[in-house]
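Consider the following input, taken from an annotated entry for Zn-dependent hydrolase (Arthrobacter echini).
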Amino acid sequence: MESTRHRFMWRCQRINDFSALDDRDPIPQRRSWWCRNILLTSTRGLLMTLIDSRRLTEDLVRLGEIGRRVAGGLDRSSFSPADTAARQWYIDRCTRSGLDVQVDGIGNIIVGSPIADALTDTDRPPVWSGSHIDTVPNGGAFDGALGTLAALECLRRIHEEKLVLDRPVRCVVYADEEGNYAHLLGSRAITGGVTRSELESLTGRDGDRFVDTFTAAGGDVERAADSVLPEGAIDSSVELHIEQGPVLEAQGIDIGLVTGIVGLGGGTITLRGQADHAGTTPMSTRKDAGVGAGAVLLALPGIAPMVSDRAVVTCGIVRLLPGGSNVVPETAHISVDFREPTAELVGVLESAIIAEVESIAAEHGLDLEMEFEPTVPPVPMDEEVRDIICAAVEARGLTQMSIPSGAGHDSQNISTVAPTGMIFVPSIGGRSHCPEEETRWDDVGNGAQILLDTIIGLANR
Ligand SMILES: [Zn+2]
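Applying the prediction step yields:
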């Protein structure tokens, strides 16, 4: 009791020092006031426990060596030998610290502390924190790895300090976040669920079948299709991630308080013309699908700013068939990915893209087919979790700003079953999904500390 009162008074003293921060705090005053109240009333233990940033740095460097190409980028596609090695390294790291490791049906790794669990009420659902360790091809060392290893560092500190919390804590590695087989597969399997027939239809970037690779890696497809968590299994969740964009660094802000994850959609556009001889067919009589594809590539990026300043459109894959240098292209397949943070504007963006592509096809005399996935609506982050993150940032004397996530994350699935929040730290030059992806070590430490403070705040609220 005595020590609790002592900690409480010490916190109050820190809070009184915050007036100087308000000038540079881009969070509106109302939120600031709420944050302080939350800090005073519901985050017992906050500020007392510090992460070991050196250990976290070493973990990030070590994980960043697994699956590294000679040229510098990382290849850890999910369930590849490199991903399997990284997962085993992570599990070894956990067990060496005395933590309990479980792997669920789809391959998510879920880690708890036997010491912290003995000191809390394990009948209450746990607070979750985690991210992913798979990467895109030729990816970077911070996307997913930061949130995964920072969550592990937080759990280790809770374990080492024998913190008495009101709820258990779990750190998590989600399987196949980057969509080698299906985007956010691990978090979707435990929230919305996946069927066995869907799993059997999945193929990877290398053309392999999910069921073959998953079984070879020791997985059980029957169990994978039966991974949905019972209702109320997660109390709340928070994920630390690199911003993957330039905003925080450009504005000199330490922490991004994620307001929500953008809505997104897309699919494939197919333009069909006529294959002809490249030497004998006059330009005036051609039906060149390649020229149509070029017009689409030029036009679509221009649509985004007409919808909103946050909307983005990307055509990342173009295939021309039959693919001969002396043949007029008959068919063009173009991938489209579009994103927008405002719910009402996602549909507006999609309609504008469709109208533009229809007009281009007609202008070039090409047949058109569009196969678009149903759009995924934007997902707001939970207000209470955001307030607890905000309180932690203020208490640590760091700067913050509200920011939407332009990238998809497992948190968008977890948010459908539990209050969920996300914390961003700056990406150097805004670079991500490339070997140059990097975050300053100070920012890594700041983000991990705010993550720990938030986990404690959530566990004790
Ligand atoms: Zn990620």
